[in-house]
Specification:
Distance between the termini: 61 Å
Number of domains: 2
Largest sheet: 5 strands, antiparallel
Shape: rod-shaped
Order of helices and strands: HEEEEEEE
Number of helices: 1
Radius of gyration: 23 Å
Helix content: 40-55%
Strand order of the largest sheet: 4-3-2-1-5
CATH topology of the largest domain: SH3 type barrels
Amino acid sequence: MEGNSLGIWPMVIFLVAIFAIMYFLMIRPRQKQLKQHEEMTKELRVGDKVIIAGGIYGTIESLDEDTVILKIESGATMRVARGSVLGKQDIEESGRGVF
């Protein structure tokens, strides 16, 4: 019977190794990305040029705890969830937006 109990350890080690690989390749990078996005949304300021999840570019006119009022190019304003802001638009010397 002891031969059978030794046979389970390689499988346990294999499963732990697979879980560790999945953690370092999938779970940990996603947690880091979510943390960076949360920090970026906390650092938003009036006047920042941003892009939202729908692909709309705009300038922040005002901020609430959970929402952002954006002014888009046509002059219209829209209220969006703060979490839908994907990132700030950095303007290069060439005039093109880069994220």
